[in-house]
Amino acid sequence: MEAKIFFGDVEVGKTKTKEIKNPYSGDVVSIYPECDASDAKEALNIAQKAYAQNRKILLSQRVAWIEDVIEALKQNKEDIAKTITDEVAKPISFSRIEVDRCIETLRLTVSAAIQMHGETFNSDAMPSGKETMSFYKRVPAGVGVLITPFNFPLNLIAHKLAPALISGNAVVLKPTPEAPLTAYKFAKLFIQSKNRSPNALSLVYGDAEVGSTLVKSPIPRVISFTGSVPVGEIITKQAGIKKVSLELGGNAATYIDKSADLSVAAKKCAIGAFANSGQVCISLQRIYAAKSVAGEFSSLLAKETQKLITGDPYDEKTFMGPLINEEAAQRAQEWVESAVKEGASLLAGGKRDKNMFPPTILSKVTDEMSIVCEEVFAPIVSIVEVEDFDEAIFKINNSPYGLQYSIFTNDLKNTKRAIDEFECAGVVINDIPTIRFDIQPYGGSKLSGIGKEGPKYALEEFTEIKSIVIC
To answer: What are the respective helix, strand and coil percentages of the chain, to the nearest 5?
Structure first.
């Protein structure tokens, strides 16, 4: 099926198109139009005009708009799930979960928008304000540019698009080039709603040229991006004076305490390291295990990993499919080979077959190895033995990233220390750092990003405070 451009409510095709092939089978699964800078400018101009109208539409209509999309998404759940699997080879059971999460995200957005409010403030606290009454309200920021990745090609759009529209903005969406049809089908649900705000959503495709045109333009007030640190740095330099929200890379870690339930920890770590083929910003990449339990834990993790079913993403039983492309699989193998040459031991996996890269466990990893220093974005996890929690805290924090960390422990003192001393934006106790609830404030510290997602917090990114003083 062919994806189309949306210039506002108008659907447009182009002669020049590109094909998307399923990463597992190699079959062509979708076609999308090649966009250029002129398409990006056209979409921005439409959004600028639409913003003047959408900001005036009652919240009740915007709520009805999102509720229409929720119902349409429920009716088209299987088709959307299959499209996700077609384009990015996410196992079909997980694609269905993503659609369910998307519905949940939309519902949470409606609830958060209804509860969003301003406050009074005491301008009469100073003598100069003795006869004033003052308050502030939240108002839409303006035009938003939304740039989304391939690993959650539906729900990560929802986390940006729904808060932006329900708060009265107009947007231009540029989804990942790897999943254009998923984005097109989702956007169409918004545009088909009888309660839509006319032309408030435009959809274009492309890479650097289109992205740079959108980001550099003086029209947008908000840039919301999820992706890599290098691209995030480019956006920061190009954007100028705008609100910029960046959800960037991670290097998630956990600590296995000597008091932990090792069996439970191993089962959960296998999921955290290898779900979605490790293509998750909070995928578990580093495991620091207390020396007294490291050997036993490593054996348990290897056994749990052997139970995972890999292969055909259309098989209901498959846990892990391929990486997004052969280049990603080749890069993963090179990282593993480099670590082994530097002294690491391979406990499982490590050899690719085209786009398939098996769940891979490394031990005897040192702090200098790239496999623990950088984000691998592949199904690779490294186990590092440490003497105690002091050493683990130092090593875990010794990273330019700071998205989410976790600890497995039954020691209350270490639980409190993890909460206080982990240098990251999210801490998880007795589970993997790969957990994300769609209601939570989600975003990174250090190089992992700026700003927060989660409907309540995204609404703050897409709105601004207007102060009112009545004299």
So the answer is: 40, 25, 35
Q: Could you give the domains of the chain? A: 5-248+448-470 (3.40.605.10), 252-437 (3.40.309.10)
pLDDT at 209: 96
Buried b (16+ CB within 10 A) or exposed e, 222-243: bbbbbbebebbebbeebbeebb
pLDDT of residue 367: 87
Catalytic hit among 98, 247, 385, 453: 247
| Closest of 431, 320, 329, 363 to residue 89, by C-alpha | 320
Establish whether 281 is a catalytic residue: yes
Residue 131, pLDDT score: 86
* Alpha-carbon separation of residue 135 from 131, 279, 295 (angstroms): 14, 45, 60
| Count of other CB atoms within 10 angstroms of residue 412 | 9
pLDDT for position 235: 98
Amino acid identity, residue 119?
E
> Tokens at residue 183, please?
């984005």
What pLDDT is stored for residue 412 in this prediction? Answer: 98
Q: How far apart are the first and last CA of the chain?
A: 60
Task: Verify whether residue 424 is a known catalytic residue.
Answer: no
Residues of the chain with pLDDT under 70: none
Give the model's pLDDT for residue 173: 98
Identity of residue 205: Y
The confidence score (pLDDT) of residue 201 equals: 98
Beta bridge partners of 405: 253, 427
- At residue 130, the pLDDT reads 80
Q: What pLDDT, on the 0 to 100 scale, is given for residue 1? A: 86
> Where are the alpha helices (H) located in 353-445, listed in sequence order?
370-373, 389-397, 412-421
For residue 334, the tally of other CB atoms under 10 A from its CB is 12
Catalytic residue among 35, 269, 281, 424: 281
